[in-house]
Structure formats: C-alpha cells, structure tokens
Amino acid sequence: MAGINQTILMNLSMVVVASFMEAEGVGARILQALQYVAKGQGLLGGLATLFCAMVIDKIAQGSYRQGHKKTDRGYRTASTIVTGNCGLP
Questions:
Q1: Between these two residues, 15 and 83, which has the higher pLDDT value?
Q2: Rounded distance between C-alpha atoms, residue 69 and residue 1, angstroms
C-alpha cells in the first residue's frame, strides 16, 4: 500500500511541474502564486492539492481493503483506480 500512496503523491506533485509547461489547473495557480509571492493563493492551491491527495488516498485504501477481502488482487485494483493501468499486473 505504501507504493500506491507514493504514486498518488508523485502524480499530484507533477501537476505543479506540468504548469511550467503551460498546463492549466491547480498547478498553474500554485505556480502563479509562487511567481508573485501571493501567500493566500498559494495556500489555497496547496490545500486543494492536499484535499485531492486525501480523497484519492482514501479511495485507494477502501478499494484495497474491499478487494483484499474478496481476492488477492487488491493491489492491482487500487493501482488501476489511481493510475489507470488496466493491462499491467
């Protein structure tokens, strides 16, 4: 389960990195806040990213626990939800 949590956090950190290449979304707001030293806007963007991470983590944990009770494919189920890898084991 630790690898799935790290994958979630890495994907959310890539949102900010993608904003360097003109990607839109929460990452662009965080980047703009960093450029203009806007503390409030940076805090809101950071909290939005944190909230997304918490929700996705709870979904992955619930999926793992539910799948682990029925079958040993719990890791595959949680990683499929998080990363969308349907064809990989």
A1: 15
A2: 15
Six token digits for residue 58: 């709870």
- CA distance readout (Å), 50 to 53, 56, 74, 86: 5, 10, 24, 26
The ranges assigned to domains in the chain are 2-83
- Window from 30-34, 59-63, 69-73 with minimum mean pLDDT: 69-73
Alpha-carbon gap, residue 33 to 26, rounded angstroms: 11
pLDDT-wise least confident of 29-33, 41-45, 65-69, 80-84:
80-84
- Helices then strands (H, E): number in the chain? 4, 0
Reference 2, options 84, 87, 79; nearest CA is 79
